[in-house]
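step 3/5: co-fold with fe (ii) ion
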Amino acid sequence: MKHWNTRYPNRFDLESDADYKRWRDEKLAAYPGNVGDLVVELGDMTAITSAEKNKIKELVELANMCVYTAGSADLSMDSLAALGRQLGVSHTDKSSRHNNSDELTDSGILNRAIPFTTRHVRWHTDATYYGSDKTIQALFLLCKQPAVEGGSNKVLDQEILYILLRDKDPEALGVLMNRECFKFKNPKTGEIVENLGGKVFWTNPEGHLCHRFSFRKTDMAWSDDADVVAARNVLESFLLNDPEHVIEGRLESGLGLISNNVLHTRETLVDSDDAAKKRLLFRTRFYDRVNAC
Ligand SMILES: [Fe+2]
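step 4/5: write tokens
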């Protein structure tokens, strides 16, 4: 482990450069170059060894994510929850949501919300609608059945995006870290929910960087203050230009993603017409995070 959170506690403080610069240089030098560098092979995701756990924690420190193999475990929601418990995350948002909302398949549920279709999903973190004071910090996936074609994900560590912004446009980053940037808007009624708003980047009480963003507009009411509009434009143009360090890969059957809710896309896919062969990924989202300390 690098122990960046204890060695460089002020790396997300825009007022001080010393920790930031040392951490940035180490982080960029150690950043995984491709999806292969992110893989941890597990013998059984429901009973991981201490060596496997250490490898996961090391990669999550480097990139806020890793890709794992399920090993001999069943490819099921229970296995995904068991993996979370072993990594210290168990506080999910499942009970407050639709029963099948963590089965990513072309089911058309939730008024054909985009995760449950075959369409391209643009850059986002999950669950922006909760606001920044009760955010989803971890996102886990497990693939049971991939699409016939397509359906890969691009992923981008929010700490890399922070570094790109801090080096190229610190003023925009300052706005995204300090201002109330967007609130939840009920897509059916257009009503704006005042207490479900907040920042785009911020640090949690343990000093880790949290991030919430989506290109989706249906349930997001962005501030129209000029500095927020300008900062949002900067962030969006970074993402639209496929920044360095974006990694792309497809979760095949028996592969999964452990992440601290990193930015991700889902590319367009072609699904099977056979109901028994439809693409199916299990997803679990947690209010807590991997490597919390
Ligand atoms: Fe997502």
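step 5/5: annotate
DSSP finds eight helices and 17 strands in the chain.
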